[in-house]
């Protein structure tokens, strides 16, 4: 019998150092997701997030991402995974 190869789960993101950012980081750890692609919390930025209703209509949208992830940071994160 053949078994599936184990997979590593990872995410590449940047979060702020506020409640939503801390929640996201803590939840990723609880779910066993690799944190190598998650940058240290941005002390000055907020985490962009959206919460959706049952029908998919956004009813709450935080400040959009102030800083994008530099392309080289994304490439480096993929190399490390």
Describe what this molecule looks like in 3D.
There is one protein chain. The chain has 81 residues and is an alpha+beta fold. Residues 59-66 have low confidence and may be disordered. The protein has one domain (19-75). The longest helix is centred in the N-terminal third of the chain and has 12 residues, at 19-30. It contains 2 helices and 2 strands; from the N terminus they run αββα. Helix content is 27%, strand content 9%. It has helices at residues 19-30, 71-80; strands at 50-52, 58-61. The chain has a two-stranded antiparallel ribbon. It starts with 18 loop residues before the first helix and ends with a helix. Keywords: Plasmid.
Gyration radius, to the nearest Å? 15 Å
Which structural class do you get from the secondary structure elements?
alpha+beta
Shape type: globular
For the residues shown, what is the average pLDDT?
71
* Strand residues, percent: 5-15%
Number of domains: 1
User: Taking strands numbered 1, 2, ... along the chain, how are they ordered across the largest sheet?
Assistant: 1-2
Spans where pLDDT lies below 50 across 5 or more residues: 59-66
Q: Note the main sheet.
A: 2 strands, antiparallel
What is the assembly state of the chains in this entry?
A: single chain
Number of strands: 2
First-to-last CA distance: 29 Å
Give short descriptive properties of this protein.
2 helices, plasmid, 81 residues
């Amino acid at each position: 019998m053949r078994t599936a190869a184990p997979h590593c789960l990872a995410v590449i993101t940047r979060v702020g150092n506020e409640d939503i950012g801390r929640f996201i980081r803590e939840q990723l750890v609880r779910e066993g997701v690799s944190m190598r692609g998650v940058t240290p919390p941005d002390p000055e930025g907020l985490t962009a997030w959206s919460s959706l209703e049952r029908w998919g209509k956004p009813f709450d949208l935080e400040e959009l991402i102030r800083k994008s992830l530099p392309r080289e940071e994304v490439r480096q994160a993929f190399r490390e995974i």
